[in-house]
C-alpha cells in the first residue's frame, strides 16, 4: 500500500488512499486477529523493524525520564494556588486525566496502523490518520491536522526552552547574590548571560554527542532532588497552618502548572514505537500505568509537603526557597541550574529536527551548515529574549501549560478519539463522546482561564510601575 520501511522509518507514500478500508472489513477495535481471515490480517507489531528496540524496563525508564523533570519543583507553587486538600485531590484527578489521554492517543495510533497498514506512527501521523480514516467529510483535513500538530509540538518545545532560561537565571542569581552581594544583578541580566553558553552548546547536531549531557543532567537532578527533599522534611510545620482550599480564581494557575509538569505527550509515541514488545505499553500493569503512577505519586508528594513547608512564600521552583546561608542548599541550586542547562540542549534537539525537516530540502546543500548555525543561534536568542522580557518562573510555567500542553495533551487526544470512533461506535448512550467533551471542556478552561490569569499576573508584575504615571493616579489602577 505504498509503504516503504527502512531501519524503522515509515514513509506513507499513498497516505490519502482509502483502499485499505475494504481490506479490513468490520474493523476490530483492538489488535486481536481473532475471527479475521489470515490473508486479511495485519498486525503492526509484527511488521515493525526497529534497529535498536528498547526493552520493557528500558521503555519505562525513558518514559519516567521524560516526565520527571524541573516541573516537579513547581508543584508546591501549584498547591499554593489550589490549597492543600484541593491540590492533593486535583493532582490525582489531573494525573488520571493526563494518563487517560495518553492511553487514548496510543490506542488510536495502534488501531489506525491496522487500517493504514503501517508498522508505527508518530503523534502527528496518528492525528492525520484518524482524520484520514474517519468520517468522509473530515478526510480532507488530514494533511492540515498532521501539519498543525507538527508546528504545535515545535512551539511547545520552544516555549519550554524559555522556561528553562528563567529557571537557570533565577537559581544562579540566588547563589551569586549571597556570595557576591556587591554585584547584585537582575534576573534579566542573568538570562542574558546564559546566551553565550547556550548558543555554543546548541550547535551540537548529533544526538549521540548529547548523551553525556543527558547522563550528567540525570545525575545532577538526583542529587538536587535528594537535597531538596531533605530540607522539605526538616522541621515541617502543622498542615493545619496551611489553607485547605484556595480561591477558585487561582485554580486555573494550579491546573495549568500541573499539566505543564506532568504532560509528556510529545515523547510517548516515540517510546512506544521503539519498544521490542509494544503490546506491553498499555494494559495493566503496563509501562504507561506504572510510569504515571510513579510520576503522580512523586509530584503529589513534593507538592503537598513543599506547600506545608513554605506555605504562601513558596516560589516558582521550590529550590529558590532553600536557605541562602547553607552550603548544601546553595549546591542544590547550582546543580539544578547546570542540570537544566544540559537539559536545554536535549529539548532544543526536538524542535530543531522539526524545523530542519521543513527547511532542509529548500536550502542548497552548500549552505546547509551556515543555515543550521543561523537557525540555531536565532532560536536560542529568541528564547533568551522572551525569557528576559517576562522573567517570572511561576507565571511562565502556567502560561505554557495553559496554551500549549492543555491543547496538545488534553484537547487533541479527545478530538482524535472522537473522530476515530465516530463511525465505529461511541459506546452505550455515546458515553465516549460525552467523556471526550468533558475532557475538551477542561482543556479549554485551562486554555482560556489559565492564559487569562497568567497574562494578568504578568501585566501586574511587569506593567505596574508604569501604570500610575499613565493614569495620573498615585496608587495606580492595579
From TrEMBL:
Record key words, sorted: Membrane, Transmembrane, Transmembrane helix
| InterPro entries named among the record's database cross-references | AA_transpt_TM
Q: Where in the cell is it found?
A: Membrane
- Classify the protein's membrane topology as the record does: Multi-pass membrane protein
Q: Which residues cross the membrane?
A: 84-106, 148-167, 187-204, 211-233, 253-271, 283-307, 327-352, 373-390, 396-416, 437-455
What is the superkingdom listed in this entry's lineage? Eukaryota
Entry keyword annotation includes Membrane? yes
Q: Where is the Amino acid transporter transmembrane domain?
A: 54-455
Indicate what this protein is called per its UniProt record.
Amino acid transporter transmembrane domain-containing protein
Q: Which organism is it from?
A: Plutella xylostella
Taxonomy, top ranks, is: Eukaryota, Metazoa, Ecdysozoa, Arthropoda, Hexapoda
